[in-house]
Design a protein that fits this description.
The complex is a heterodimer of chains A (104) and B (147). With 104 residues, chain A is of the alpha/beta class. Helix content of chain A is 41%, strand content 38%. Chain A has a single domain, classed as STAS domain (Transcription Regulator spoIIAA, 2-Layer Sandwich). In chain A, α3 links the parallel β4 and β5. Chain A starts with a strand and ends with a strand. Chain B has a single domain, classed as 2-Layer Sandwich (Heat Shock Protein 90), CATH 3.30.565.10. The chains are: A alpha/beta (104), B alpha+beta (147). The structure holds adenosine-5'-triphosphate and magnesium ion. Adenosine-5'-triphosphate sits at the interface of chains B and A.
């Protein structure tokens, strides 16, 4: 499990890799929030390209970031989801508040 | 019906064991030769049930999680995940999507995920005694191509 951050004035990208469960979510959350809250960029992109496993903890993670970014007027997109990850996020109705994009 | 194989795993309710438990169960279920998606279904459902034991059943202590896996002839695997923790007052309500008693970063989707990835789920719980989640997964029959 690892978190990579890249940023420009308009966007913070948080690239996640490995497995997102309740155990790993704590560290991922800390690193993501540090970047998000120091930049306050209008767009936050969560890249799931290298995520090999997720359970509902990842849904909670996305929802939590959405609440933070929304509170300062920014928007969140989640990219490179597998079809399975996409279906799980839709269980939560996440598509109504963040932009969800599947892998090519 | 009698199982043709079984496995029992007892582990501490420490979050580090979430990945251990789901990998262990899916490795055992792999003997039925499911496809990758079906194995991911098992992994995800087990991860949900085990996480619930850790965060809800034993909120401020470490308790025991007992996982039993039974394999049947008709490509069926039954998994029970049991704790001796707090218990659930209203199981029906707890299983409703988006219902959570913890808030914060919990989405309230664990049971919804287990339901969507398994063929059957039943939950038995007694307040103060603990909870058992029973999951049934039936793998599709595989047709093998001739060489
Ligand atoms: N083993 C358990 N012991 C005690 N209470 C439980 C147990 N499992 C579930 N619950 C109760 O049922 C509720 C719903 O569980 P569910 O897994 O659907 O959502 P969650 O754990 O709150 O959130 P998420 O799974 O999305 O992180 C929990 O909030 C908790 O109150
Ligand atoms: Mg849960």
């Amino acid at each position: 499990m690892a978190v990579k951050i890249s940023s420009s004035p308009m966007r913070v990208t948080v690239s996640l890799s490995g497995e997102i469960d309740h155990h790993n979510a704590a560290v991922i959350r800390m690193e993501a929030d540090e970047a998000i809250q120091s930049k306050l960029a209008p767009n936050v992109r969560l890249d799931f390209d290298e995520v090999t496993f997720m359970d509902s903890s990842a849904i909670g993670f996305v929802l939590g970031r959405y609440r933070i970014v929304e509170s300062y007027g920014g928007n969140v997109e989640v990219i490179n989801l597998t079809r399975r990850q996409f279906a799980m996020m839709k269980l939560a109705g996440l598509e109504n508040v963040v932009k969800l994009k599947t892998k090519k | 019906m009698k199982p043709i194989n079984k496995m029992i795993l007892k582990t501490d309710s420490r979050s580090i064991n979430e990945s251990f438990a789901r990998i262990c169960v899916s490795a055992f279920a792999a003997q039925l030769d499911p496809d990758i998606e079906e194995l991911s279904d098992v992994k995800t459902a087990v991860s949900e049930a085990v996480t619930n034991c850790i965060v809800h059943a034993y909120p401020n202590k470490v308790g025991e999680i007992i996982i039993k896996v039974f394999i049947y002839e008709n490509r069926t695997v039954k998994i029970s995940i049991k704790d001796k923790g707090r218990g659930i007052e209203d199981v029906k309500k707890a299983m409703e999507p988006l219902y959570t008693t913890l808030g914060g970063e919990r989405a309230g989707l664990g049971f919804a995920v287990m339901e969507s990835f398994c063929d059957r789920i039943s939950v038995k719980s007694t307040v103060g005694k603990g909870t058992t989640v029973n999951l049934t997964k039936i793998f599709a029959s595989r047709t093998y191509e001739n060489e």
